Amino acid sequence: MKILHIIPTYFPAHRYGGPIKSVHELNKWLVKKGADVTVYTTNLDGEGVLDVPLGREVIIDGVKVYYFPITFRSWQYSRLLHCALAKNIKDFDLIHITSVFLAASTLGAYYAKKFKKPYIISPRGSLMKKPLARKSSLKKKIYLNLIEKRNLKDAIIHFTTEIEKEEYLKAGFPLKNFIIISNGLDIEEFNKKVAPGFFRQKFGISCDKEIVLFLSRLSWKKGLDTLIPAFTKVTEKNSKAILVLAGGDDEGYKKEIEKQIANSKLRSGKVIFTGMIGGDDKIAAYRDSQVFVLPSHSENFGNVVLEAMYSGLPVIVTKNVGIASEAEKTGVGIVIEKDEKQLTKAILVVLSNDDLAKKMGENGKQLVQEKFLWSGIAERFIKEYNNLLIK
Asked: How confident is the model over 78-124, as pLDDT tens digits?
């Protein structure tokens, strides 16, 4: 089975968040399961570009990746990628597109239909209510109605959770067929040995402090407008609590967070910014913390929630996080509305009850091992790919 995955930005462009990691992990595990996977992407990396070979095959974890030079940034368009699609898409059995509103979905859908290839589009949360509201300009609406809906009409739509599918349907988008397959976790990364206290020592956090961990991009949609006032209330009841904000600031949102902190009653040193962390730092952050929080406005899945659960952390998430329903059913943490009082109460409950926190952590690790390992996720994708090729 020869799969072409078209995506405008790709590993190692980590600044674009969870999809960069999850799409590569999927492709890596598809290869491990016997699929032949090629990726067409650009060298785009924020305001800059990736330092990668261009226009030729680069093997990453068995995946054949072709990076093409960016031509038109606002549409994430590459003329050479366009040429490669026109020339080579006929040589693949199935096309998987991770993109909407950009050149990848329009060109991928056009050439897939031209050469009668089945194609899947993964919106990765971009067509959910809150992100769409942020893209409500007249230009976006025209593009959506004249172009994107046509791309979606003949595609099989891949959703990571039921909530993503529900919001897609409520928005009135066309749905010929769909699959729901979650993201997964490569546990090899999280089984590494890291010395206890490594994270605390690196960032100057004493062992008597209780770490409330937020590990994600510093973005409007992550719910920091609720987290800062809620944590302010937490510190009034728990003087040992420290909030760690671990994530990159590619959107420039850190200034808004700092403004919220300055206007709050938080004392100096109660909030620590680490910047983007990975490797041993990330593993240690999970292991040295007491509770993980993600009070997002909108999240089609929530990869970091899996990481926290496998690391044995109780999690607190809003109902807007795709994996929230699974978390609620299995007792891995507390699911709340996006509400300051509810978040304050949930954090205090976890910090004040060691036995409850331990049980939540154990439940979370078990849930990941049973349902969210990439090995099983990749097998589900291969089954669905094969079903498409039979039809």
From this structure: 999 999 999 999 999 999 999 999 999 999 999 999 999 999 999 99
**Interatomic CA distance for residues 207 and 197, integer angstroms:** 8
Q: Where are the domains of the chain?
A: 2-184+373-390, 189-371
Rounded CA separation 337/320 (Å):
8
Residue type, 139: K
- The answer to whether 165 and 159 are in contact (CB under 8 A) is yes
- CATH code of the region 2-184+373-390: 3.40.50.2000
Q: How many other CB atoms sit within 10 Å of the CB of residue 132?
A: 18
Q: Which CATH number fits domain 189-371: 3.40.50.300, 3.40.50.2000, 3.10.20.90, 3.40.50.11690?
A: 3.40.50.2000
Q: Which two tokens stand for residue 250?
A: 């590619």
**Edge-to-edge strand order for the sheet containing 271-273?**
271-273, 241-246, 210-215, 291-294, 315-318, 333-336
End-to-end CA distance of the chain: 15
**DSSP type of residue 144:** I
- Residue 302 near residue 259, CB atoms below 8 Å: no
Distance CA 374, CA 29 (A): 7
